[in-house]
Amino acid sequence: MPPTRNNRKSTRPVEKVKAALHLIDLKHLSIRKAAKESGLSYVFLHRRLSGNTRIDSRSGPDPVFNSFEETAMSEWLCEMERRGMGLKPKEFLQFVHNIVKKEKRKNPFTNGHPGHKWYYSFMARNCNTVRIRTEVPLEACRSKLTREQVDNWYCRYRDFIIEKGLLESPSRIWNADETGFCMGSTPGKVIGPIKEKGSYHIPHVTGGSSKERLTALFCASADGRMMPPFLVYPAPKPQGCNPLTGGLNGSAIEYTKKGWMTADAFLKFINHFDKHAGPERPVLLLIDSVSSHVDMSVFQSAAEKGIEIYRLLPNATHLMQPLDRGVFGPLKLKWHQVVRKHYREHPGAKIGKLNFSEKLKEVYYEFYKPLTVINSFKVTGIYPIDSTKIGDDELKPAVVLDQKEMQPQSPPATEDYEDTMLTEDENSESDITIKPIEKIMHDSPRKYPIDVNVVICKDGVNRQKLVDYDDNDRSDDVMLSSYGASFFTESTLKCYDQDKKNSPAITDFLIYPKAQAGKPKLKSLLQTLPDNLTSDESIRKMALKDLEKTRSFAEREKKAKQVYVKNCEKQLKKQQVQQKRKKQGKQKVKTLQKKSEDEVLCIACEVSWVDDQENCHKWVGCHVYDGWIHEHCIPIDHDVSGLADEKSQFVCHLCL
Fold this sequence. Notes:
The protein is of the alpha/beta class. It has five domains: 113 residues, no CATH class; 234 residues, 2-Layer Sandwich (Nucleotidyltransferase, domain 5), CATH 3.30.420.10; 88 residues, no CATH class; 52 residues; 62 residues, 2-Layer Sandwich (Herpes Virus-1). The protein has 18 helices and 14 strands. Strand 5, helix 9 and strand 6 form a beta-alpha-beta unit. Helix 8 runs parallel beside helix 9, helix 11 packs across helix 12 and helix 11 packs antiparallel against helix 13. The chain is extended.
């Protein structure tokens, strides 16, 4: 079968040279036989064994970046991915283009832009360090979680467990959390016809609405038990039927306005939990810091029933909540399978309030395994208590948002060891001096480690000699290499030292992002509460917070009342002024009416009729009362249409 792209195996020449050197040293083969068995030419192997050519050299043009620079970039890519700032292939190619452009480095790229061919070659050369990974969305508040916060919480949690005598009682350690179930099925890969030209997309009938969800609160213990679910449905309550018919025995249900968990619904769940948690007290209930779970009435009711509510570290439930880590994943997977099966067997029959409990029972029986629940507590370090279950790589995003100055992590470099001289016994077959240039541990699977040393013979010829180091004698200072064991000779050591340096442009680009220091935020009530929410201190702080809310509400009401009274007084004064002006206008009209013809005055200019006889000005009478005004004294914006028609009635501006 001829080799194809998928089944052919390619071995790098460096690895073949290593194998050949191994045969020469241990099996005492000649160079020609070792080259033949390793699949290399005699000249190719001889040049590298004599020291005239580097072992990792290759034919063709010089690479754009040397091996150390590529190693630095690959380590930088890995660290960026751990910090949640990973680069996509196109972004990385643009990153390389910026380096080449800034440094004006000679390259075979088109317009200085590396293509996919160079990208795939880079990934192949650094396959032991980098590969394509799928990102998982992480909220900014969750990315601020630090190792110090995690360790401190586990220390407090361990002390609390010991204080309550629950260290050897996994049956009394519970975790509760709610999750939503979609009423519609999800699309996936199915068996279908071969795609032809002009073919349409394969449809998937979801059955129900993808936006319709029902909430179910599950509770599991560290010994593998699970309580019957506590369901939360949106109001109103169905009439004439029981939605729990056909569901798990002992299930409970509560109705809220939107079908979400509320403080009142969680208070009823505490009664449900008390019923199924067993007679032993106290029992521990681990919850998250959702606002619907933090309520003083809930804490008081739980304390009376011997239930110790202990909250998980805020913004860390994706790492520390057992139900999130190991239960809800397989549960939702089975749910989607049951929903698809239901809509395939019963087209048009939707899943809703009436039959959700029945379908959830079917999913529960297919999913539930006590070992799954036990492992979910174990993987989070909740029981047995182990803070190391949360790895440092999972907390790396906090380095970006942490305001504390941290030492930047530089890509690992190969450490130079001091040159030492090892002299063999005088009675040995050949008097040679072995000078170890560098010891680098091979990270590929081998039965024994291999190091290469420069052999300086009496004739002055430099040769390479393999030295086996026992695993017990190997120290921890042996450095790892991203591409395996490297072989060096004295003639190539100078070239190797030059390749170990990064160019200034690459050093400037290989930096890690850091968030700028912002304004300190005030701590909320959730941040000030102790972890044990049913403790006296927690209840006291909640009571003080409620009292503070009541006082602030009373102060706001008082200020609002003062503003309202002030506005009413202003409105009343305004009305009084308007009434006074209106009254004064009526009095003025009455005085004009009482005057005789000899005492008639113009309403506007107050010139008398007698005094104006010599000027012969035209006077106009108001129809409302017996007042008179000069025609030229009428305001410009006043309607004078009534003057043109003798039958119409004129009204002055004071009467309007």
